[in-house]
Amino acid sequence: MAMQSRNSSLRNMVKAQYNDQQQHMGAAYGPYGQMTQAPQVQTMTIDDVVVRTVALVGATFVAALLTYGMVGSGDAASAGTAGLLMAVGGVVSIGIILFSIFKPITNPFIAFAYGIGQGFLLGGFSAVMEAQFPGIVVNALVATILVFFGMLALYKFRILKNSPVFTKVIVGAGFGIGGLLLVNLVASLFGVNLGLFAAPGGDPTTLQWIIAIALTLWAAFSFVLDFDMIEWSAQNGAPKKYAWAGAFGLTAGLIFLYWNLLRLLSYFQGE
Asked: Where are its TM segments located (predicted)?
């Protein structure tokens, strides 16, 4: 449910924030020629986003290793602790994702809370999947990296470009996917299986194959919006704090892509 740019209105919010900042700066320093001190406005760069993304992904990976080791150890106490961490991480990260739909994540503590929470959840679930399908975790990780850099290359060389139509399609599909996942989650809490996703090792139906492939494709193509948002923000002097919003979007996108690739690979294993 990592919403495209993971914040569909982020571009307008960055612009409004920047304009507001300029107005307040003028009021604080006075008109040009009467300034007592030159204003210092720190703006974000693409390097800022890269550094923050590496930090968030690193925190996610470390948290995942913790619960992965606990679940894989075979110790009942460790597995119980991992289950608790996974539950807390799941609740926290879902809450942050829902919050990010309405307001961009520019607070590093919230961004790290999301990454660590998802890491706890990913690590435990990945250990279960690895025990059932040896090698699937490495394959999913490699596939996630290849897809991400493949999309980055396609965007870098302008083979894939963002456009108003492309944005509407990805954003509209994203809200549809988010609603679908939320309904499925609520139904599962009441013990109702909507049949949208096959159990690991099961025999997926045609609908389940279509959903898994569609989610994976959406996760991949949504990076185009992230790259475009980050590039636009850096070129237009967005405040430096928005580098965290860009890093959060990329991290959430990578996590969502990994989840779906892991599911898709398990479908192949179940064949």
From this structure: 49-71, 83-102, 109-129, 135-157, 169-197, 209-230, 242-261
CA angle in degrees (0–180, nearest 5) for 33-36-41:
90
Are the C-beta atoms of residues 30 and 39 closer than 8 Å to each other? no
d(CA 170, CA 222): 6
Strand partners, 43: 239
pLDDT per residue over 9-38, tens digit each? 444 444 445 454 444 434 444 444 454 454
> CA nearest 227: which of 256, 191, 253?
253
Collapsing DSSP states into helix, strand and coil, what is residue 201?
coil
What is the pTM for the complete model shown?
0.86
- In 3-state terms the chain splits into helix, strand, coil percentages (rounded to 5) of 75, 0, 25
d(CA 219, CA 259): 10
DSSP output for 183-216 = HHHHHHHTT---SSSPPTTS---HHHHHHHHHHH
